[in-house]
Amino acid sequence: MTEFTYKSRKEQKAMSMEKLGLYKREQRKYEFEQGIPMKGIKRRRLLHPLIDLILKANRIGNHQKLTVLKNGSKPKSLRDLFTPTIYAFTHIGGSDVESMVEAADRHTYLFFGDPEPMYKDKEVNLLVFLNGSIDFNTKDKDDRKISFFRGKELLSRRGRLIIFVEGAWNVFEHLPVMKIFPGASKMAIEVDKEKRFNVDIVPGAIEQYGDEFVVSFGNRIKTNKHMDSKELDKRIRDELATLKYEIFETQPPLEVTPTTNAMVWENVSVSEGLALQKEYDEIYRQGIIDRRSGYSTLEDIYRDMYKDPNETTAHELIGETQNKLVAIKKIGFLRQEVDELTSKIRALIEKVQTQNSSVENQKRLKVEIEDSARLIEEKIAKIRQTVEFLDDREKQTDEDYDFDNPTVQRYTELQNRIDNLNQIKSTLLSLDVPSEFNINSSIPNSEKRISLN
Fold first, then answer.
1. According to DSSP H, which parts of 83-228 are helical?
2. Using CA atoms, how far apart are residues 293 and 320, in angstroms rounded to an integer?
3. Is the whole model's pTM more than 0.85, yes or no?
4. Burial 101-133 (b: 16+ CB within 10 A, else e)
5. End-to-end CA gap in the chain
6. What domains lie within the chain, and their CATH numbers?
7. Checking DSSP bridges between strand 85-89 and strand 200-209, what pairing results, if any?
8. pLDDT in tens, 370-398
9. Phi/psi of residue 317, each to 5°?
10. DSSP H/E element including 164
11. 3-class secondary structure, 430
């Protein structure tokens, strides 16, 4: 059970952003383990007109325009009016959160990932608090699980929840909708299984053109416990892509001078063309980040966006295999160095035992032997560490990988290259080197086998 002590607002204010974020995570974990329910849901519903007014005033003050292209989410019956709802939205950054909350025109909690910077912004923190949010740290597995259960709790109390299902800003010019996280579909299906009432999912897309935000809502997707979450995710993403294209079609075509590929790519090789395209993509994506607050680098976006587990596993498998191959190669180099030092010591011992060698020369040779012995001990220690690293890696069984996936199958030959790992290690675990030298003693009279076991 998590131990936790509540701190005053003054104490929280004095904390750094990192410490405050940790405090909030511990608080969420403690309250969840204690079975403390979410508070203030009804009061926040009553506050929604005030929140809506603040958002409108803030938008007008920033000289921004909000256009709702279509809204298929409006309740068409009493059933729709009281049905718990998940708003599955696309994510472009900037003021898209405020725009979507305002456009939804109904009280909705925010599913808020990585809220730590918000805690230090008084105005935003107060506004989000009054509206209501389910916060979680995307890098904390326990915190993510707690947020999922809190989401189900909110829906079971007939609340509404906004989830930006892409997980990160979409900065990809060629991709209307990135791959979406499965949390929204799983949450809706599980609520029906556990509480026996349906959850609606409303897809919503947003784009920004200058100071104008254009929003479009699709029709309600009525879910039930018999649905397959993967199929539901596919349907949600298809709906979002359709909404995005409908927004795109509202914009006038770009006025460009017609040209031919020959005019653009004359004297440009394929590799140079690919490099130019990659450079353009990076500039385009970084430009979006620079114009909006929230993310600071493209790496942050790549980290937060959804990645297919099978594809991720394939990349992890490549990295894991490469790590093992590097470790084996390292052991080979260490063994070669040990062999060279062993030969050197043997040669030095022969010189010491030569009758013609002077006393001073023998002392000098003994020092060289002792130095070489130290080096051998260091090399053997490194070999032990590397063998332990390989042992840890081998604890990951094949069950960790989905080898039925075609993406993974392309890399199985890399895994096959290390199938003989145990045989290689068994050879390395007993090296024919001099005995364990006692540096403070005289030159050993015999040689012994040193085992790494």
1. 96-104, 116-119, 122-131, 141-156, 183-195
2. 36
3. no
4. bbbbebbbbbbbbbbbebbeeeeeeebbebbbb
5. 40
6. 37-248 (3.40.1130.10), 309-451 (no CATH)
7. parallel
8. 888 888 878 777 877 777 766 666 554 44
9. -65, -40
10. strand 160-164
11. strand
